[in-house]
User: Fold this.
Amino acid sequence: MIVNMIDYLRDRLQAVIYCCYGVMAFIVIWSMSVDTSHAHTWAEKMIPGFWSLFGLCSCAIVIMVARWYGKSGIQAREDYYDN
Assistant:
């Protein structure tokens, strides 16, 4: 069942990308309507969708660091157990 869903989404990749862009735009627009008078930092008050952007950038950095760490020698070759 999961494989069928993944294949379905992979066949419609462009629609999935547009849906993700739409969701991100909705979050940023919705965050503009939130009362920021009790915000803790300057960034929360002045940058619309700050926490959404912060989360996206943080995830991207974690992924890049993990890929670098994996390629620096921690990953085993694919034929490691064959030998």
Summary: The chain has four helices and no strands. The CA atoms of residues 31 and 49 lie 5 Å apart. Residues 50-74 form the longest helix (25 residues).
